[in-house]
Amino acid sequence: MSLKAVFFDFNGVIINDEPLHERLIEQLLLEENLTLKPGEYHKVCLGRSDRSCLKELLARRGRVLNDTYLTQLLHRKARGYAMDVQKIEKLPLYPGLDDLLSQVRSCNLKLGIVSDAIGKEIEVVLDRTQLAEYFQVVVAGDDITTSKPEPDGYLLAVERLNQKYPDLNLQPHECLAIEDTPAGIQAAKKAGMQVVGVANTYPFHMLQRCCNWTVDDLTDLELERVQEVFSQKELQRTTGE
User: Fold this and answer.
1) What is the extent of the structural domain holding 36?
2) How confident is residue 233, by pLDDT bands cut at 50, 70 and 90?
């Protein structure tokens, strides 16, 4: 079982943009003549897709929206996100990201993003930071009908890589996911992948209980050691030990 691909979550792993999302969600609610209570965003929205987050926030206030209007709200938020990102001089990317991406690419591993974020939000950040060239596939929240902790996003990423590289024959157990939330970790594990938990959003001890590896930040991730574990498991599988 050699390591062939590494999938990154987006918010909380690549970019530290949670305050921006909270402000935009608060603004959307205000435009609906509603208010966000103190601490409510972190309780309801942290680690969840915008669709799930908005749905619950509105339901708590007696609003049941049809999918069409909910999608309109999400695209309105995505436009606001893109405008705000363009105004930020230096985007808050997490330390160690550039070095880790370079390591992954130098090892000839495929790279992808699997996120519940809207595709336009991911695209604008990748374009601004010139990181788009690193990723062969991007699966966003509007590419699938479910959200994490369901595994659909990760499985679609594997499928897309196999379509793009027919000789790759990629299997989920040959992939590593880098996640920062319990929902994301569950999604990758349900897909059959091994997971690195990075303690950017939740405490180290909470992630440690459910991940194959846990790090305080991306600078602590030793890719060579991870590859060794994958290689050892492949050797055990082929030798029957």
Assistant:
1) 18-87
2) confident
